[in-house]
Amino acid sequence: MGYPVGRAAELAGVTVRTLHHYDEIGLLTPGGRSAAGYRRYDDADLERLQRILLYRELGFTLEEIAVILDDPDTDPRAHLRRQHGLLLDRIARLRQMVAGVEFLMEAHKVGVNLTPEEKFEAFGDFDPDAYAAEAQERWGDTDAYAQSARRTSGYSKDDWVRIRAESEDLNARWVAALDAGEPAEGRVAMDLAEEHRLQITKFYYDCSYEIHTGLAEMYLADERFTANYENQRAGLARFVHDAILANAVARA
Amino acid sequence: MGYPVGRAAELAGVTVRTLHHYDEIGLLTPGGRSAAGYRRYDDADLERLQRILLYRELGFTLEEIAVILDDPDTDPRAHLRRQHGLLLDRIARLRQMVAGVEFLMEAHKVGVNLTPEEKFEAFGDFDPDAYAAEAQERWGDTDAYAQSARRTSGYSKDDWVRIRAESEDLNARWVAALDAGEPAEGRVAMDLAEEHRLQITKFYYDCSYEIHTGLAEMYLADERFTANYENQRAGLARFVHDAILANAVARA
DNA sequence: CGTGCGCCCTGCCGCTACGTGAGAGTCAAC
DNA sequence: GTTGACTCTCACGTAGCGGCAGGGCGCACG
User: Fold this and answer.
1) B109 is in which domain, residue-wise?
2) B44 and B125, same domain (yes or no)
């Protein structure tokens, strides 16, 4: 009983070498060996293999996959839900790119000349807030992120333009507040924080005060977000962070 | 004029090292250099870079991308259309995987026990006919494939179950015909060929006799398809091929 | 005028996730 | 008992960069 390596590879649609590799690095060790030393894969092995391949398709490294799969308090159902969410997210991202290509096709047809900046923007260096939901969910397991993916996947090109405009507007006002020397715990900054929270709720997912403070922490901890704010104004990341916390404490 | 490497990298959302690498392998050589030997990227370079990144996201190797981009008779519009189609295809594939995950979740909830084969099938080693459209279009430039992607992306889990069932039913009858010793140019085989053509039209895209014969050739030429048929019965690939050709000649 | 500081250059070594043999044993079939 | 398909274990090769070393630019600031 159990499948030999060739059969397992065929079933999963991978090469024998790949299975050898996974065995070498300890990612997928077959349940047993025959007398002659042949690998024998049982049903549990194949189930694990399937999960590996799905996470791999989603862009995780083999090391990350090992961590995810060997986490003791993640049952099969949690894996399926997470994979489901991540897949929806990928689709949302691809849809955004489709919208970008359609936008460029339009521009080309009408003969509009776009600056390089505009061209790259068409695809979006993915919006930080949408991205945040992903990061949040990647290891957590709420459904804020799945909600985000579901909603963003329904957005049209025009929607994205509107969303981008509103986001940039709010951003400009953050910068203005910082430049004006507003205190992060003051009325103005806290109102901006509240507006920020409502904007996320409106476009992506229900952003509670708790989630919002979580985002604020990430704005400081994750350099991708830090850079996003700091590129606009030195100290802006910390300013936004502090304002969000003050706002959450005051209103919650 | 022209952007320095750091600025170009920032615009495109890649690292400087990546641009160096593309320069090294000749995939993207900056339009000029400053007096001090600094790379200077002009607008045309950035446009090329954007195309590179999109094709890369779609899974092409850098070498393949070079071939695609340096093909003299592919204008910007053709690139956009191709990218648009390929993106829709990726989305369709991911949707199929989503459906697969949902199917597994259902099965898990109801407590159904699936064999490993069934589990891997849930995601589909992608249906050959849908795949065919892709291969057809990847280098050609009709829109059969885009049509296929558009339609399949709208299919639900239940739809896929039905499609799979119908496909397998037809497949079984091909096998039966071959086993029964039916001639490939006979009535029975030709009727199966016609049914095959209509099934593709129904589920994926308008399959003309011309396209159909194209598919038949591919069933013999591309080992992924050959294997698909030969795994069921030796000689089946050739049998299907001959029947499709006979049918096309007789009816067209 | 020099002296940081940030950006740029060219090697070059390292890493991941395998591909691709080489050389040898295994197993079912004829 | 031999053939052909499958398996094993080294072991080196490859793609697409990441990251660091050692060294030039270039402009501001004192």
Assistant:
1) 76-251
2) no
Cβ <8 Å between A116 and B46:
yes
Written as six digits, the tokens of A243 are 């304002």
Going by C-alpha positions, the residue among A235, A195, A242 that lies closest to residue A217 is: A242
Domain end call among B46, B70, B94? B70
DSSP B99-139: HHHHHHHHHHHHTPPPPHHHHHHHH-S--HHHHHHHHHHHH
Q: What is the CATH number of the domain that holds A47?
A: 1.10.1660.10
Task: Please tell me which of the candidates B43, B94, B116 has its beta carbon nearest to residue A116.
Answer: B43
Let me know whether A119 and A226 are in one domain. yes
Provide the ipTM: 0.62
Query: Does residue A41 sit in the same domain as residue A102?
Result: no
- The residue from A70, A99, A121 where one domain ends is A70
* CA-to-C1' span, A250 to D11 (A): 64
Residue A37 contacts strand D, CB under 7 A? yes
Rounded to an integer, the average pLDDT of B30-57 is 92
Residue A137 sits in the same domain as residue A214: yes
Contact list in B for residue A54 (CB cut-off 8 A) is: 97, 101, 123
Q: Which residues contact B25 (CB under 8 A, 6 or more apart)?
A: B62
* Predicted local confidence at residue A23, as pLDDT: 96
In this model, does residue A112 exceed pLDDT 70? Answer: no
Identify whether residues A99 and A209 lie together within a single domain.
yes
Residue type, A51: R
Nearest alpha carbon to residue B87 among B153, B160, B159, B154: B153
- CA-to-C1' span, B160 to C14 (A): 45
**Dist CA B157 CA B150 (whole Å):** 16
Q: Are residues B134 and B159 in the same domain?
A: yes
Looking at every residue in chain A, the average pLDDT score rounds to: 77
Contact between residue B119 and residue B104 where contact means Cβ atoms under 8 Å apart: yes
